[in-house]
Amino acid sequence: MQELKTDRDILGEALGRIPSGCSILTAAHDGKTNGVLVSWVQQASLEPLMVTVCVKEERPAAALINGSGKFLLNVIGTDPSAMFKHFGRGYSSEEDAFAGLVTHDTEYGPALADAIACLACRVEGKAPAGDHDIYIAEVVAAHGDRTKDPYVHIRKSGLAY
Questions:
Q1: CA 96 centroid distance within chain
Q2: Rounded Cα gap, residues 141 and 91, in angstroms
Q3: Domains in the chain with CATH codes
Q4: What is the mean pLDDT of the chain?
Q5: What are phi and psi of 62, to 5 degrees?
Q6: What is the pLDDT of residues 106-117, one digit of tens each?
Q7: How far apart are CA 155 and CA 161, in angstroms?
Q8: Phi first, then psi: what are they for 15, rounded to 5°?
Q9: 132-148 tens-digit pLDDT
Q10: Distance (Å, rounded) from C-alpha 68 to C-alpha 71?
Q11: Is the distance from CB of 12 to CB of 159 less than 8 angstroms?
Q12: Residue 116: half-sphere exposure toward Cβ, Cα within 13 Å
């Protein structure tokens, strides 16, 4: 085994090797909607079915999650380029984050027609984690297409998205 080192670049390189998927988290509250690209999503429990997802506190979607107590995870398929391009820059609370996309409304947030799966989540807890908040949520409804594979994301470094 190689010697463990504490150099930040080495830490980032090692963290970047942890695979993740990418989803578009959408949320709705008081007539407003927003969406954000998220890559730190993980199943957290089998009974009940739960996930964790990390969102920066200043993202407009976070305010909607905090207000409604729920969100929708739209899982991205193997060709993420259109969703990365659309959601990569982020949207303010005044912008229409879904302009040009085919969606349908759910009580949890807009469902994207191009998603290979959607998970409706009810927030059960929230914890601060550095520059993000971790939402712990129960999956209460879902749909998915088993014929399509999810995008798997490997970063060059864990020091940046």
A1: 18
A2: 26
A3: 21-144 (2.30.110.10)
A4: 96
A5: -60, -40
A6: 999 999 999 999
A7: 7
A8: -60, -35
A9: 999 999 999 999 999 99
A10: 8
A11: yes
A12: 17
Which amino acid, 47? E
* Dihedrals phi, psi of 126, to nearest 5 degrees: -150, 140
Buried b (16+ CB within 10 A) or exposed e, 40-65: bbeebeeeeebbbbbbeeebbbbbbb
Q: How confident is the model at residue 79 (pLDDT cuts 50, 70, 90)?
A: very high
Residue-by-residue DSSP string for the chain: -PPP---HHHHHHHHTTS-B--EEEEEEETTEEEEEEE--EEEEETTTTEEEEEE-TTSHHHHHHHHHSEEEEEE-BS--HHHHHHHTT---TTS-TTTTS-EE--TTSPEETT-SEEEEEEEEEEEEETTEEEEEEEEEEEEE-TTSPBP-B--S-TT--
Cβ distance 136 to 127 under 8 Å?
yes
Question: What phi and psi values does residue 69 have, to the nearest 5 degrees?
Answer: 75, 20
